[in-house]
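Consortium newsletter contribution from the modelling node. Members have asked for a concrete example of what our holo predictions look like. Here is one, prepared for the NAP complex that several groups have been discussing at recent meetings.
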Amino acid sequence: MTATLIKGTVIREEILEEITKEVAEIKEKHGVVPGLVTILVGANPASMSYVTLKIKTAHRVGFTEVQDSQPNDISEADLLALIDKYNNDESINGILVQLPLPKQIDEKKVLNAIDPDKDVDGFHPVNVGRLMIGGDEVKFPPCTPAGIQEMIVRAGVETKGAEVVVVGRSNIVGKPIANMMLQKGVGANSTVTVVHTGTKNLDAHCQRADILIVAAGVPDLVKPEWIKPGACVIDVGVNRVGEKISEKTGNKIAILKGDVDFDAAKEIAGSITPVPGGVGPMTITMLMANTLKSLKFKLGMI
Ligand code: NAP
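And here is the predicted structure:
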């Protein structure tokens, strides 16, 4: 069997097109567009390239994008005051603080200061609680899990009654996606098992999965014999395993590998996400979706 590829690069384009159309309609009817602010402290190269991509995507879909760059030695009090300013700014619907922050700043304190109704990353404890309750309570599902669920739905994979096994229990991927898949509703209603380093017989759990979601950060952790024939395999892992010279640019680029032995797994799975080009492109896409949602909440459209 050769699995169908679930390509994040393709699904991203579909969703960004939908967002662009909706933003234009809202602008026409209400005279406003979503506003997203990204606060970047210091000049960490990885953070800067991620922020650049966010800005480019926000512009593409027609948002107002504010990039607020702050020096590496900004005090915690000044950063909290900045967040307060954007919490009270009517033109801003989403606030993003790019992590990591310098050591003089308590990251938790800063993230918790963001108005939960502008927390488009979905990491504020209020939004974590809303996600746990489910249904109408959910405002902003965290972006990577939201992207995973969207890929499963758009690939036409049946989730109702499906055995879902999630490898990993982090706060940003494993726990929220497990919680989302067990809720009642479309793209969920599954029977969920979460496995981790304390789990016995990891292989036996994975073998039961109709949908296997792997977010461990261990290259090739999941072996082909752990996969149920025909299963949907979502590989969230992004592991740098070396470097190579890009044929396009001649520059050094990272060689990336997922948490699943892709070449062997694709002969057994029914559908599978590649790395790169799978879950990766979905995170920024869902950030745009959450920011649009924030404006729609404000306008009473949802
Ligand atoms: P994390 O915080 O390090 O959590 C990893 C989880 O996997 C932990 O719960 C850990 O278990 C579990 N785990 C690790 N090794 C295991 C093993 N051998 N057997 C069973 N469980 C194991 O990582 P994360 O932030 O969730 O990220 C996971 C991966 O996804 C990383 O490669 C990351 O780069 C990638 N990622 C991609 C995106 C994206 O594409 N947009 C976004 C986020 C993350 P314990 O709890 O027992 O330690």
